[in-house]
Each structure stands twice: as structure tokens, then as C-alpha cells.
Amino acid sequence: MRQLIFAMIFLLSTLSFSLGSVISDVDKSDIKLSTRFDGTSLLVFGAISPENDSTSLLVEVVGPSTTVNIRKKVRIWGIWVNKKIAQFQDIPSFYQISISNPEHPLLKEIEYRKLKSVFYDFLNITSISEDGNSTKQYYDELTRLKKKLGKLSTFEEKINIIDKKLFSYKVNLPKKIHPGIYKIKMTLIDQQAIELSKSEQSVKVSKVGVQEFLSSNSKNNPVFYGLFSVIIALFLGFTAAQLFRWLYR
């Protein structure tokens, strides 16, 4: 596999393309989620033709969309309940961004613009919090949790550039990821963060085996899924009772 990848990179390097261009590929386009799935990695590679030494390569990995609710314990009629006070709608379940030049003069601005476009613009306040939480606190909490779960990374991973023409980039996907289409976007930018050229690849992540069976029936056959869950629960409970009875007999 490694020899094949390097051969493809060599072929990419021999192609003639204009200045300010980027072409790319990935080593796998399909990932299966099974009960034994423990995370995986992707290798993104390709060739670039920078206009000059100040041109940088930006790589983004955008996972399928999801909705994140922000809840807070509040007291209603003397009972403490978790009340939804805000919601991030249709945000990436996984997001990673890296740059070939960590000394880019507009690095902080690029990070803010990207996070704003994929996370911050999708915040919906559903209830006024009693302690007066600001939107910034919601943003900070979201990014903190995603980083803790390994689902958000900003300029932490390294992009390897060879002879200012070839690049390779490793994407580490955590154990708990959402199924769907993961988009990998490569963009050449200049010192003013103006986009010069783009390239995009897609990787499909899908459930297989028991996970696919349960996920599909929970959505398409909720009655069957409910009955199946009850039967499994009763079977496991009966089996555990018999086991303990045998052990302490």
C-alpha cells in the first residue's frame, strides 16, 4: 500500500498544472464502523504549484452535520431539571484544520473565520439563562468539549511538504465518530488569506453488522426496534439471574 501511495504521488508530481493549483487524493474512500472499530487514520496526499514562497496550503476535514444541545439544571416547581437553553444546529460532528505555514500573519483571523462559518453562526438561543451566560461562553464550552473528545483540532496536525511541490497529511479519526460523508478540503492561500485554488475529496463512513442493523431499525422500524430492545433486555436479565443463582447455590 505504501509503495502504491508513493507511486501515485510521483505521478501527481509529473503532471503539468498552472501556478496556484492543487490536486489531491486519499488512501481510502470508504470506512466501515463495526463493533470492533477503534478509530482509524486517513492519508491525504497530492501536489501543489504555489505562486511563490509565501503561498500556504490549508487543509480542512469536515464531518457530517449534527445538532448539539446546551442544557443547564434549573428549578421548575421545586424540581431540578435539565433545561435546553441553547442549540448549535447542523454543525460538523468532526472538524480539523491545519496549515503548511504556522507563521502565517493572519493565522488567528483564519481560525476565527473558519470556526465562525462552521460553528458560531449556527447558535440558536432557546431560553434566557438565569446566570446571564453570554454567547461566547457557549462557544468556548462547545470547542472545549469537542477538543476533549478529539473531534476538533485547529492547527495542531502537521502538513508535510516535499520540495515545495508534494504534500501529505494524516487525519486521525477517533473511536466515536458519526457515519456519513467526511469532506477533505485543500486550499492554497496567499499572505492575505485570499484563496487561490481548491481541491476536495470525500470519504464515506458507514455502519456495518450489528450497528447498522440497530441504527437502521431505530429509524425505519421503531416498533420492531422497541420490541427487540425489550426482548434483549429480558433475555440478558434472565441470563444474569440464572448465572448468579448458579454461582451462589
Describe this structure in words.
The chain folds into 2 domains: 2-206, Sandwich (Immunoglobulin-like); 208-249. The protein is flat and about 80 Å long. Helices cover 31% and strands 40% of the residues. β12 and β13 form a beta hairpin. The protein has a 6-stranded mixed β-sheet with strand order 2-13-12-4-7-9. It has a 4-stranded antiparallel β-sheet with strand order 1-3-11-10, covered by helices on one side. A 3-stranded antiparallel β-sheet has the order 5-6-8, covered by helices on one side. The chain contains 5 helices and 13 strands. The protein is of the alpha+beta class. The chain starts with a helix and ends with a helix.
Brief overview:
The protein has 249 residues and is of the alpha+beta class. It has helices at 2-14, 107-118, 135-148, 209-220, 222-247, and strands spanning 21-26, 30-33, 40-49, 56-62, 65-76, 79-92, 95-99, 123-125, 152-154, 159-162, 166-173, 180-189, 195-207.
Task: Supply the key terms.
single chain; 249 residues; alpha+beta; Immunoglobulin-like; 2 domains; six-stranded mixed beta sheet; 31% helix
Helical/strand content category: alpha+beta
CATH architecture of the largest domain: Sandwich
Helical amount:
25-40%
* CATH topology term of the largest domain: Immunoglobulin-like
Question: How many individual domains?
Answer: 2
- Tell me the total number of β-strands: 13
Shape field:
flat
Can you list the strand order of the major beta sheet?
A: 2-13-12-4-7-9
The SSE string, one letter per element, is HEEEEEEEHEHEEEEEHH
* The CATH class of the largest domain: Mainly Beta
First-residue to last-residue Cα separation: 57 Å
Tell me, rounded to a whole number, the average pLDDT: 80
For the record, what is the CATH homologous superfamily label of the largest domain? Immunoglobulins
Number of helices: 5
What is the beta-strand fraction? 35-45%
- Poorly predicted runs of 5 or more residues: none
